[in-house]
Specification:
The protein is α/β, with parallel strands linked by helices and about 475 residues long. Helix content is about 45%, strand content about 15%. The protein folds into 3 domains: about 150 residues, Rossmann fold; about 160 residues, Rossmann fold, CATH 3.40.50; about 35 residues, no CATH class. Strands 9-8-7-6-10-11-12 form a 7-stranded mixed beta sheet, with helices on both faces. A 5-stranded mixed beta sheet has the order 1-2-4-3-5.
Amino acid sequence: MSKKTEPNFYESVQQNFDRAAQFTSIPTGLLQQIKVCNSVYYMQFPVKIGKDYQVIEAFRVQHSHHRLPTKGGIRFSQKVNQEEVMALASLMTYKCALVDVPFGGAKGGVKISPREYTADQLQKITRRYTTELVRKNFIGPGIDVPAPDYGTGSREMAWILDTYLTFKGGEIDAAGCVTGKPVSQNGIRGRDEATGRGVYYGIREVLNDRSLLKKYGIEPGTEGKTMAIQGLGNVGYHTGKIAQTEGDFKIISVAEYEGAIYSEKGIDIDELVKHRKKTGSILDFPGTVNLDQRKKTLEIACDVLVPAALENQIRSDNARRVKAKIVAEAANGPVTATANDILLKKGVIIIPDMYLNAGGVTVSYFEWLKNLSHMRFGRMEKRFDQNTYLNLVNLIERQSGRSITQKEKSIIARGADEIDLVRSGLEETMVTAYHQIREVMMRKPKVTDLRSAAFVNALGKVASDYMNMGIFP
């Protein structure tokens, strides 16, 4: 008998879908429609690099059109392939449904290693890729809205917008064709930290869920909890920084491309980033020891393990060595379907990716709304609120005969800036979504893990949209 192979990323997503689907009453045909990718665009295009031409492979997958536009990031990685992009697009559909963001799921991928190209060369590739999307009507504020993902950032999104404007310059809502843009280019404050902040809010909600934690023998609260992070990119960095400053977590291990480090006393994330910029590596950071393998971080004994790198990091061959009480999937698909079962049997709580890293698409939604309204959040109400609060404080001072300092008054009597509103909206979204997931677990006793409950909730919402469209009367 041949040895069973580990499921790839796409297969893991499909297996998790099937596991959850059995707990729904959605008709089989409708489940199949929700499961499949509606449109897959595979392209090859030439780009002049130096004196030679390179043929670049790229993809854009639109998983579901039950709501428009479709939404999903663009990944630059040498490991990009069609099934990976299909898996990511599928997760985007369920993710958007889960956090009540009115988009269908999509994803893009360009098969390159950004490390091997200059900024000018990356700009050429990005603009050529965008041109292909425009030509095939695979991008637009009401059609399909890309965003950053692994290997891309606000710089690439600005190039995409500028290229789109070359073709659609008279389109009044053109800025909404892509999100994750620089603030100066119609972006939104708080987008860079959004996914990491959402990860923190999700972890915090689980650690405040006394009824769930009691079943696993975990003390509630974030203060003093230990955390290990795999990946110090945008998501890993902001997760660690916010967990330290707002949740009083102790980061004891960090892994990156070049290796991994450990410190029982804790690692200051900001200082570690400064060290890496100076030396080019996280290794040899003062007060830490270097681990012999970068994946050893996944096996560190800690309260919360945050895989914030790529998919398929925890597999059947290392899942049994995971010692964390909670695995928080900041990356997409870091735990394979096989490893998922192993961890659950070990009594590990898994906070699923489709919920936990939804902060990025949530704030992207806010940015899209900002672009369509052509006005930043807080512009209308900030001064009104500030004056109202100030009048209240002055009234209390007069009535009580006591006064406070000007500094104290300025803290109390302030209107919300855009970033305050973004953070508030993100927190509300993550808290509400978590309680919806837990409600599924309470309503369906056979659904015993957060991933299956998240899927059941998301599938119900997508199915309802299809039914309301009249496609499946």
